[in-house]
Amino acid sequence: MAHVRENDLTEGLSGKFGRKFVFKQLRGKTIVARRAKPTTKESALQRENRDRFKKASAYAKAMMLIAEKKAYYWNMAKELNLPNAYTAALSDYMRKPTIEEVDVVTEDSSLAIKVSATKKDFRIKMIKVVALGQDDVIVEEGDTVKDIQRWHYVFTTQKDMISKIKVVVQDEAGNVLSREIMDVIADGCL
Questions:
Q1: How far is CA 164 from CA 96, 129, 143, in A?
Q2: Domain extents for the chain?
Q3: Cβ atoms within 10 Å of 99's Cβ, excluding its own
Q4: pTM exceeds 0.90
Q5: Residue 132: other Cβ atoms inside 10 A
Q6: Which residues pair with residue 137 across a beta bridge?
Q7: Which of 12, 87, 108, 153 would be 82's cystine partner, CB 3.0–4.6 Å?
Q8: Which 8-state DSSP code applies to residue 44?
Q9: Averaged over 83-88, what is the pLDDT?
Q10: How many CB atoms lie within 10 A of CB 159?
Q11: 3-state secondary structure of 122
Q12: Does residue 15 surpass a pLDDT of 90?
């Protein structure tokens, strides 16, 4: 890849030149490079990544149409030293949240759950918990409440009615991650 400097003829030029070269504009600079060879085969992982990036691009374009989201992503772009809000929105979509820790504790005759979840550089929208009884029937579900560091929820259902708890984390971009805690009472979580 070559950079073109102080050349009035090629300044601002972009597109194909002959069969082998292409001119590009990158951050205000003109760059000349060899044309990429078209891909002939694509693995399942490549196809999956390409589809994910296509969805990320659609998400970023949609967020640029919503004034408050665009402002949020402009602030994030400045904070993360990214070129623009669109790139920040792409980054938000591509990064997935992680569940770091889940603690299930006894409070009187009920259960309480404390969840630590993060997402690099971006925020988590919500964490939902679902209590499952015998035969995976939903006994109770609700949204957690966030304090300074963790998300909390106290189940109103008695603890002996709950056999599994499912934690579902969702970020602003719509990425969802879940974790099941099996046999809550038998695992010694209490």
A1: 24, 10, 17
A2: 2-34, 44-94, 98-181
A3: 16
A4: no
A5: 21
A6: none
A7: 87
A8: H
A9: 94
A10: 19
A11: coil
A12: no
What SS3 class is residue 15?
strand
User: At 175, which amino acid appears?
Assistant: N
Q: What is the DSSP letter of 88?
A: H
Residue 13 banded pLDDT, cuts 50, 70, 90: low
Q: Which two tokens stand for residue 71?
A: 């402002």
CATH class for the domain made up of 98-181: mainly beta
Whole-Å CA distances, 36 to 33, 83, 152: 9, 24, 51
Question: What angle separates helix 67-80 from helix 85-94, to the nearest 10 degrees?
Answer: 90
Q: Does 159 have pLDDT greater than 80?
A: no
81 is written with which tokens? 């030293």
CA 162, distance to chain mean position in Å, is: 30
Q: Tell me the C-alpha distance between 48 and 143, whole Å.
A: 31
Give mean pLDDT, residues 137-160: 86
DSSP string, 93-106: HHSPPEEEEEEEEE
Q: Are 139 and 161 in contact (CB under 8 A)?
A: yes
Task: Report the pLDDT value the prediction gives residue 136, as an integer from 0 to 100.
Answer: 84
Q: Are 189 and 181 in contact (CB under 8 A)?
A: yes
The mean pLDDT value for 78-93 works out to 94
CA distance 100 to 74: 28
* Spatial separation of the C-alpha atoms in residues 164 and 17, rounded to whole Å: 62
